[in-house]
Design a protein that fits this description.
By secondary structure, the protein is an alpha+beta fold. It contains 6 helices and 22 strands. The protein is 18% helix and 33% strand. It has a 5-stranded antiparallel sheet.
């Protein structure tokens, strides 16, 4: 027969072990400041999502270290402190912010400038794009990563896709293409090229604009005008490379929109001189009297293929622009173009181009 004293000691020992185990898993995880931490999870599969205390008792596996659980939430959910009160339905469907929660980490959904949530269609599936709370500029990065990996950007996608989007098509879940194909119409060469992330000549719409191109959704030649500062603005027929260059060579500005008004006083102040460029030892010397105040811009040397050989910024200041485009190596003989893309103090774009020959 087992003695009662032994049974009592056994029961007491079991109670101590149980108490130790409960104590080890009964508290919500805390951060380095001793604050209880909660995680806001989105809906996924059969889980409705909600606001939940980070607690090893409910982890998989049970008893996982708090550091790992907090890191998981910071990577895939939203990390909160300051949540108070009783969460209904064990947190299902609850928003941590409605219970005093303060956002301290995790990721948030990325949105396009038009306010629509961003998704990326990859060969492996349709995936929501996320931003980091601790680095709120990364949405631009992840959206461009989708473009640069030949992914397709979508908006309007349902967030309740099975398998978190793996193996899914964005278009099958309400998705609409966010950025349809764009083309760059080069007003100087009279050519039109599709803007692709992998293109070496027209990497993106900004590069197209910098090289004097016109970004559009088709290869229809844009309506171009030749604006003579302080004088008149005439439509350029075509347009093509020859007609645009005729405007430039006659000191006009090729523009897609004429100014609403032309001031006679502006004409009297506009004593502009042609853009000139010539080959010197070690570079290309450029000079131009714009006849008006320049706020900035770029001077670029391109070859006959339109490839940039050298460039330098246009300094803000008066209307006299002079610069030397330094070359890192010997320039092969041939025909090149010096292109000035500047803006005056009123924000008006000014484009000039002049050929320059390199002789050996």
């Amino acid at each position: 027969m087992i003695k009662k004293s032994y049974l009592k000691q056994l029961a007491l020992g079991f109670a101590v072990v149980l108490a130790f185990a409960v104590q080890g898993f009964s508290q919500t995880c805390t951060n380095s400041s001793g604050q209880n931490v909660f995680c806001q999870w989105g809906a996924s599969g059969n889980s409705p999502g909600g606001c939940y205390p980070i607690d090893p008792r409910y982890s998989t596996p049970v008893g996982a270290p708090c550091a790992d659980l907090i890191a998981n939430c910071d990577r895939d959910g939203l990390l909160y402190t300051g949540v108070t009160g009783t969460l209904p339905n064990n947190g299902d469907g609850a928003q941590c912010t409605q219970y005093g929660g303060q956002l301290v980490g995790g990721r948030t959904s990325c949105y396009f400038p038009n306010g629509q949530q961003a998704f990326c269609q990859q060969p492996s599936g349709c995936f929501e794009l996320f931003d980091r709370v601790d680095n709120p500029r990364t949405c631009e990065v992840v959206i461009n990563q989708c473009r640069n990996s030949n992914g397709l950007l979508f908006s309007g996608v349902s967030s309740s896709m099975p398998n978190s989007g793996t193996g899914q098509q964005c278009a099958n879940h309400g998705g609409q293409r966010y950025d349809p194909r764009q083309y760059c119409y080069d007003i100087y060469k009279g050519t039109c090229e599709e803007i692709l992330p992998t293109s070496t000549t027209v990497p993106n719409e900004w590069e197209c604009i910098k090289m004097g191109g016109n970004v559009q959704l088709s290869c229809t030649p844009p309506t171009m005008y030749c604006h003579w500062v302080g004088w008149k603005c005439d439509q350029i027929p075509g347009p093509d490379a020859a007609t645009v260059m005729a405007c430039v060579n006659n000191l006009g500005d090729p523009v897609t929109t004429c100014p609403q008004s032309v001031s006679p006083s502006a004409r009297s102040r506009s004593a502009s001189a042609p853009l000139s460029a010539y080959h010197v030892k070690g570079g290309i010397s450029v000079s131009w009297n714009a006849g008006l105040q320049i706020s900035g811009g770029t001077i670029t040397l391109v070859n006959i293929k339109g490839e940039t050989v050298a460039s330098t910024p246009v300094k803000a200041g008066g209307g006299n622009v002079s610069a030397t485009l330094g070359l890192k190596s010997t320039l092969p003989a041939g025909m090149y173009f010096v292109r000035v893309n500047a803006r005056d103090v009123s924000g008006r774009q000014i484009v000039r181009q002049v050929p320059v020959s390199v002789m050996k």
